[in-house]
Structure prediction request, 177 residues.
Amino acid sequence: MDREQRGVTVWFTGLSGAGKTTISQEVAQALQKRAYKVEILDGDVVRQNLTKGLGFSKDDRDENIRRIGFVAHLLTRNGVVVLISAISPYREIREEVRSRIGDFVEVYVNAPLAVCEQRDVKGLYKKARSGEIKNFTGIDDPYESPLHPQIECHTDQETIEESTEKVLRKLEELGYL
Prediction:
């Protein structure tokens, strides 16, 4: 690769089942085809490794996001495009991480709760509704949607390809690609 790659953290936030992981994987494939250095930090994978032992209290969720943000910052400053898919329900901690990283693009993966519950790939909403899971985002814990995301993907109205293209176009427009 001849060009110097500019690092950026692309933070996909939204409810469980909104499509964060799916879109981030499609964006990663598109960027890898173009020979960009890309890392995906998926919330579920991070919880099994980097933040194992943290629960789902507000403090633990904030610490989870801080740790993801720390790793993203290291990669970003070293010229990597970092794609993060994490529910990250609280606005304040997303803003804290954004200000620390600097090169940060927020993608709101927006799907109505009813649509996310219909998708319920992991059966989590069902467990939350039955009381098996407590503090579940969107059910008995709040999700604070971004006020000014650079990108908003409406996954109940757009195809994966349309959402992916929207992210790639914005990264080009902002000078990261």
Summary: Residues 109 and 153 are 5 Å apart (CA to CA).
